[in-house]
Amino acid sequence: MRTYVIKRLLLAIPTIVGAVTLVFFAIHLAPGDPAALFIPPDLPSNQTAEAYAQIRAQYGFDQPLPVQYARYLQRVAQLDFGQSLRQKTNVMDDLLRRIPNTFQLGFVALLLSVLVGVTLGVFSAVNRGSWLDNATMFGALFGVSMPSFWFALMLILVFSVMLPLLPPSGFDGPIYSWQGLSHLILPAVVLGLGGAGGLARYTRSSMLEVINNDYVRTARAKGLRDTAVIVRHALRNALIPLATILGLSFGQILSGTVIVETVFAWPGIGRYLVSAINGRDFPAVQASVLLVALSFVFANLSTDLLLVYIDPRIRYE
Length: 317
Fold this sequence. Notes:
Elements: H1 2-29, H2 45-58, H3 65-77, H4 91-126, H5 131-145, H6 148-162, H7 178-210, H8 214-221, H9 226-263, H10 269-278, H11 282-310
């Protein structure tokens, strides 16, 4: 197991470097020059060129692109993401303030997605071919196809405007307080139900593959209750392929935070990334994407380790 973990961590390094490289060159190839954003609009024309040159030299934009890339890799290796071009703050400090907010939202959304998705998938598989099965799968298809920004606006309209039960946006502390939980409910529901639809479909397919196997029929023949047969025998084996889907669901939730945090004004990494992209804030964009890439890598690694626990037949050398 230890050897396998070390190998996976070593294989993750090229993935991370590739993500950093792709983001660095992609944002530099985008149209526009961030140095131009710092030129005061009322500056006389005879001073504009000099101010422009000073700004480019100050932030290193006057250097060749390979030199900028090499310096960036050196800073990243030291966990130094530089200073935000617009906010004039340390990017690492900005991310550290927002990471708990995003992962708090992502954890609750993933928990909701798993509980709803797996429950509906099992319910649909047990009632295969019935109107309950069809209704459940239609709801799952709706959840997969539904745009998250539209669903967010509909929830705000219903629960914040028509029925003023929950705040429409913002952040007000940790989830163990009612103020914090009330602000978390709507964005977590948007993220969680979006992933629950796909998870329900995968759970149903996986359950249908194992529900008629010999060991399930043997368990029923022994007189076990249907609940025990489904949960202890069928569901445990159906979770083996689902563990991989959970890793992908975590990635989908992280990517979904970009839209959801913006709609609900949630002070997390997603909203920080959108603001950085709009302002062409190179250091903030690169650091945010790198953090998301790291989250993907460790989510996949955790999924592989979870498979070992779920299926004792799996052994890694």
